[in-house]
Amino acid sequence: MEWQRDDYEVSDERGRLDLAAIHAFLANESYWAAGVPRSVVERAVENSLCFGLYKGDAQIGFARVVTDRATFGYLGDVFVARAHRGAGLGKWLVECLLSHPDLQGLRRLSLVTSDAHEVYRSFGFKPMADPTRYMEIHRPDVYKR
Fold it and tell me: Which of 64, 67, 76, 125 is at a distance of 20 to 30 A from 119, taking alpha carbons?
């Protein structure tokens, strides 16, 4: 699928993804995946429903959803390159992915963020109703080995 807005495009076409650009941002500019090896990014992209944000041929943003396309999804790795921020492109990217046919009817769509709560709240995300039921294994230093 593809969505157009002015000079920008969002696409779920896997062949258009610029893995070098995605890896560079995640490894060097994100707080959530700092130092992530390229092989991990490649595997994550391969096993997710991915969305690229483009201006012309240049990839300037990305988001992915880990999902079974039936009951749940986890939204992660959402970013817009610094030079393109402030124009609402991140919100538009999330809006496009939430409209994707493979994500309709999911019982649960979750994410983790430390700085964009208001953005996601505008799409209906809210703190977990019962955080006592949520469990995880968290390995923040896994990429530093």
Answer: 67
